[in-house]
Every structure is written in C-alpha cells, then in structure tokens.
What does this fold into?
Amino acid sequence: MTETPTQRDGAASLRDFAIESARLLHDRNCEDIILLDVRDLSQVCDYVLLGSGTSDRQMKSVADELEDIGSERGHACFRKSRDVASTWIVNDFVDLVTHIFEPGQRAYYDLEGLWSDAATVEWRREAEPAGS
It folds into this structure.
C-alpha cells in the first residue's frame, strides 16, 4: 500500500514533532534521551520518547512545554498522566507518547527493554556530538 502525499506530509510532520520534542528535553537538561520508532511494533503509537529528569519541578515544566509545542504544531495532547510524586510523567499525543522519568523509576520499568526491537531515531542537531 502506497502513501498519499497527505499521509507522507502527516508522517513527516509527526516525525519532526517527535524530533523537536526530543530536542526540547535535551535543551531543558533532561538526560538519557531516546526517541524510538515503533511503527512496525505498536498498534497504539508511532514514536516513543524517553528521557530522565533531574527533579519533579523540571519534569513537570518540560511536560507542560511539550503540551504547548504539541498544540502549536497541530498535535494536541490527548492525555497527560503523572504519578503522585511526579517520578513518571506521560504525555500522550496519540502518535507520539512521551515518558519523562526520575532515573530510578525509568530503570525499574525499563521501557527501553520493552521496545528493544524498535529503531532509534537520530534527534541531535548536526553540530551536536552524540555524547551531549
């Protein structure tokens, strides 16, 4: 089945939004950021973004900023969820699901292991070294 131009534009827009979201996490000092392409593995979403925060305040702020960017780019947040202590915040944009974790929670739930067959999407800017 071939994609129509509209479908290709939508897929490119979604990928751009996912990459922009990963860059936002980086710019706001989140750590261990991974953007996964799960299109061939999930019937629920196309991309999963994982990042670790350094404090509950930072994590809440980044999650709120993700919502703002999503709204601006035509990807409104369908649902947002956080645990009581804000150690795990999920923003569900339907085709992109973002997870911002406190590092201990992230290790415990090991979503990287769950999606180990997923392709990693390069999100870093060209002039940015991979280790930053």
